[in-house]
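Researcher: I'd like a structural prediction for the single chain below. Treat it as a standalone chain; there are no partners to consider.
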Amino acid sequence: MWCADAESGRYTAVDRRADPERWAEAVLRADPVVTQVDDGTTETVGGVASSSLSDYRAVASFLTELDVHPGQRVLEIGTGPGWTAALLAHHLGDENVVSVEIDPALADGARAAHARLGLAPTVLTGDGTLGAPDHGTFDRVHATAAFTHRLPYAWIEQTRPGAVIVAPWSPGFGAGALLRLVVADDRTASGKLVRSVAFMELRGQRDDGAGGFEAVREAEPATGEVEVEWVLESLYADGNFTHAVALRLPDVRLETLGGGAVWRLWDGGRSWALVDDRPGIGKAVQGGPRRLWDEVDAVLQWQDEHRVHGYDFGITVERDRQWGWAERPERRWEM
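Model: Treating it as a single chain, here is the predicted structure.
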């Protein structure tokens, strides 16, 4: 497993045999345990966590929302170390659990861990966004990696009507959320955001956040400045307020600085905004063809005016389209 250095943010490998005390201290805490960094390309020091053993409280939360019962079949997306697949196989039987892992080394490790426990759920090596098309239909889909743009429709295609899909959503703007969908007879799926979560993203949907902000800011000079009246730090701390923007403006990416009081916004194209709400500053500058802060501010004002809670929102997935919606007041927006 891997431990992060608080100052550098980089990860250092901890070997159970070489340093059993440090290993046990990290593993026995009620926190996620990073089990791979940089997609497995390094063995000693790395920069980006790419697989983990989730906090047991998050696992319990996910499986509670999944609501599995004996006799049901589960498709899991993202085997990782294999813990949740093992829990599901113990509860439902090996024959009722199919787990898909994109990383061959992780898939091999999970199979070996299952074998040591006397379990044998099916662990496939492949792209989880495609599901497991050769393995029948499922009653539940359990995703351990977050979708960022669109929930893969293959997950819906491979389920029965009434099936439940539980998946983390990691938008480019703000806090992530857990989505619980129910599949309808017409092969659409719809459901609400049920709680805030932070999960690693599907490898094919990784988002670089506001990584292109400085380049587009240099290419597109600022064309105006406006006063900011929102307290961004408190807004960002309350992820409820970011769900509305993420659903209504899905192309807008956010990076927070200064403890959450400085926002960098970028639409992935030519528009940007820098919002600085630190004491004594309170301004936003914008550039490019869109006024990104004006758009974001309008959504936040709408949510505040109607007193819409962050968990009044949901997502509906059709074959070719995906919708975000608010339950109260009733609204929907194509994502």
